[in-house]
Amino acid sequence: MKMRSFFYAMVVAYCSTLPVSATDYSFPSQLAQDKAEHPSTWRAWAKSYPIDPAIQTDLQSILEDLAKKMEVPDVSLRIAEANTLNSMLPARLDFTGPGFTYAVEFFGMFPSIILGEDFIHSCDKGQLEAAIAHEMAHIKNNDFTKRLVVSLCFVATTWYLLKGTSVSEAIKRALFLVPLGCVLAYAFKKQEQEADAQAQVHLGYRS
Q1: Which residues 6+ apart lie within 8 Å of 11 measured at CB?
Q2: For residue 84, which of 122, 31, 46 has the smallest C-alpha distance?
Q3: Residue pLDDT, tens place only, 119-176
Q4: Continuous segment of H or E residues that includes residue 179
Q5: How far apart are alpha carbons 163 and 157 in whole angstroms?
Q6: Are 59 and 78 in contact (CB under 8 A)?
Q7: 206 versus 29: which is more confidently predicted?
Q8: Most buried by CB count within 10 Å: which residue of 58, 111, 163, 164?
Q9: Residue ranges of the domains in the chain?
Q10: 75, 85, 18, 77: which is closest to 46 by C-alpha?
């Protein structure tokens, strides 16, 4: 998350040098119009919903442009809307909340980028482009699938090592998992750095 925040800060600094008028920022108004024209009952509980490309034309334009540049076909864009289903989770644990951005795919299939509703209201066009490019890089690299498979293997390994052991033996075996966890943390951080680098290339922030 720190690396992603640093990348967004770089984008904001760059965009602050460009002449952008307040009237150019239409994302929140298009989002509000989309919600007003599609008041379906499932939005009261859904974690995210697909945008209407005919209404949220600016977001759709960014998505299509980056999808073409980064060669990520058939990717969809969804909005994470606040709801009461996860009200018992602390904000720092609710990674599906409206303030986050993330990408999902399953072995390259069903690629989707989710933008938090609060995120859209709190950033400018440059940050939205950076976020979408970053998440699209994750999709291109199949990072979600890799993390899912590795995490399942880690859980299975933990269960195998700790099942049917005494407390003292479990503690000894758990020490084996510490360096493994550090390796996984480094690998996940590396994924974020690579996604940032790919996003910068396609956004033109470095040669």
Answers
A1: 126, 127, 129, 130, 203, 205
A2: 46
A3: 888 888 888 999 999 999 999 999 999 999 998 998 888 888 888 888 888 888 888 8
A4: helix 167-203
A5: 10
A6: no
A7: 29
A8: 111
A9: 2-203
A10: 85
Strands 101-106 and 109-116: antiparallel
- Rounded-to-integer distance, Cα 2 and Cα 108, Å: 26
Residue 2: CB partners within 8 Å, gap ≥ 6?
none
Reading across the β-sheet that carries 109-116, which strands appear in turn? 48-50, 76-80, 109-116, 101-106
Token couple for 123? 């950033």
What crossing angle do the helices spanning 167-203 and 2-15 adopt, rounded to 10°? 20
What gap in Å lies between CA 135 and CA 95, rounded to an integer?
Answer: 14
CB 137 within 8 A of CB 149: no
What does the alpha-carbon distance between residue 44 and residue 150 come to, in Å, rounded to a whole number?
33
Q: What is the pLDDT of residues 45-67, one digit of tens each?
A: 556 788 888 888 999 999 999 99
CB 103 within 8 A of CB 76: no
- Which amino acid is residue 200, in one-letter code? Q
DSSP 92: G
Through-space distance between the first and last CA atoms of the chain, rounded to whole angstroms? 24
Task: At 27, list the tokens.
Answer: 């994302």
Q: Name the burial class of residue 184, with classes exposed (0-12), middle (13-18) and buried (19+) by CB atoms within 10 angstroms of its CB.
A: middle
Residues β-bridged to residue 103? 113
